[in-house]
Structures are given as structure tokens and as C-alpha cells.
Amino acid sequence: MMLIEKFIPKYLLQSQNISVAILNTNGEYIFVNEAFRKRFDFWNREFVGVHLSDTLHPDDRKYCMKMIEECIENPHQIFQIKIRNAYKSDGRFFWIKWEASVLENDDKSPLGIMCVGYDVSSEFFIKEQLKSSEIRLKAMMDSTNDGNVLVDTNYKVLNFNKVAQESIFSFFGQTITYGDDYRNYVLADDYAEFQQYFQKALQGEITRMERQIKFGDFTSWIEVTYYPVYDADNSLFGVAFNYVDIDARKKAEIQITNQNEKLTQIAWQQSHKVRGALSTIMGLIYLIKEEKDMETKMKYINLLENTSVSLDKVIHLIMDVIHDK
Questions:
Q1: To pair with 251 at 20 to 30 A between CA atoms, which of 81, 92, 117, 317?
Q2: Residues 222-235: pLDDT tens digits?
Q3: Is 0.85 surpassed by the pTM of this model?
Q4: Final residue of a structural domain among 245, 262, 285
Q5: CA-to-CA distance for 108 and 94, rounded, in angstroms?
Q6: Domain that holds residue 206
Q7: For residue 237, is it within any domain?
Q8: Is the distance from CB of 112 to CB of 26 less than 8 angstroms?
Q9: What is the total count of domains within the chain?
Q10: Is residue 137 part of a domain?
Q11: What is the average per-residue pLDDT within 244-256?
Q12: Strand order in the sheet with 79-87
């Protein structure tokens, strides 16, 4: 057994999962255990006598050398670092958490620097997957015409999409950022309503409503939804706002409503005033035909003229309604 192995705990020497490497003060390997050899199987040659930097990702070399320097300067402390330790044969790198400290002899003299490594690749792979998912989700959010904002229970902005960012900038001249107080982006006239529906969302209630927003000369209709957001443990952690531009649809609906009201007015005019005047005219024509007395006929003719004038006024009134005068 080599002298150096006598000072390494047996469980570390025989571990199948924990990598152990001993370096001299120059950063050269003087001992590695079997777990270390298997993890660095790309090397295919002896480690002893090789410099640490040769087995590291280039971006991480300076951090490891710094760790060695700190160990030498502080022999009774343990230093930690997470780095990409090497490339595997398939071209992918893996992450290891290293704990480094000075390995001492029985007389407390330094034998070298012991580095104990734990594979934490899964932790980084999960983070990369989450980051990728977040990028895809944000891309989806930015591709919609809806505005989306997520805030926590203390009104702090957690997320937002491009539409919301552009809308807020156009109204307030400010660029929304993570951690902002969302109340700063609520119009004064809308604040009471915002608080009402925000509190309902905190109670688990979803609210959807249509409203017209006014800002200076600008007016537009939007549909706003307030809904609670829960985490994986079903604990409420925030409120999401979704708003959709419905201005074109709403104006079309208003136009249709106005047209229906006009048709109702026309129907009333036609059913009451027009039919009434027409019935009078028809009755007077009948009387004129039947009447023999000329003086009486003239009275009927005068009444017919007056009724015709009244009917003409009703027709003009209907035309005014049609043309919205």
C-alpha cells in the first residue's frame, strides 16, 4: 500500500460513487481512486504526474487553481467548487462538486491536497431542461396577442410577455422588469377595481370582465381575466392577469346593438304612426267616393291633405333614424 493511501479514509478509497484525487502543491496528481478513474474514463492513461488542468474544461482551470491556492493558504479549511470536470467520450461534459482540503501526515505536515468529488450532473441537467422549458414557454407567450403578467401575493412582478411589456411602456413610458411593484402600472381610475379583483383571486376566485380603458384621447375595449396561480404543492403563490384586445369585436357589437335599436324604432313608427295615417287616408278616400255633397267632399279632401302631410313627416322621421340623424 502506498504511503499516501494510509491517510485516506477507507470508505473513500473503496467508494464507487465518490471520486478522490490527491494533488501536490503544483497541481499534479499523486493519487486517484478507482471511482475517479471510471469517471474520467476518457483519459485512457495514467493520472499520476499529470497536471490537473489537463483534465479540466478550459473555462474552469483558473477556478481550480484558485481553489488549490486557497487550500495552501488556509490548511485547516475546506473549499467547495462546482465545475465541468471533463468531456466524456460522447462529447458531453459532466459536473462535479469538489471539496478540497489539505491532507496532513501524522505529524500534521502536509502530504498534498485531497479533492473529493460528487457527481451533480443531474442537478445541472435539470436546470438546463427547466431553462429550455422556460424559453419555449416565453416564446409561446410572446407569440400570442394576449397580454400576460404574473405577480406574487405582494404585487411583485414574476413574469410577463412581450405584449404586456409593450402595453405598459405605451401607457406609462416605463419598461416593466422582474420584481417591480405591479401597482405602479395600474391606471388611477382602475385602481379600486384592480384591488377588488386581485383580492378575489387571492381567495381562489377567477374573474373575467370586459371594460373600456381610457388614457388621454385613447380609448379601447379589453377583456381582462384575473385568476389565482398555484405551485406543485397546490399552494397559491400569485395572481395572473390576462387581457385581450376586443376593441374591434366590441365596437361591432355596439354597432349591431344600435342598429337593432333603430330597427325597433322603425318598427314602432311603421306599426303605429304609418299604419294609423294610412288607415285614415284609406277611410277618407272611401268617404270622398261615397259622398254626394260637394262641400262635405272638400272637408274630406282637406283632412286627406293634412293626414298626407303627417304621413310625410313620419316617413322623414323614419329616414332620419335609418341614417342616424
A1: 317
A2: 888 998 988 877 88
A3: no
A4: 245
A5: 35
A6: 145-245
A7: yes
A8: no
A9: 3
A10: no
A11: 70
A12: 29-32, 19-23, 110-119, 93-104, 79-87
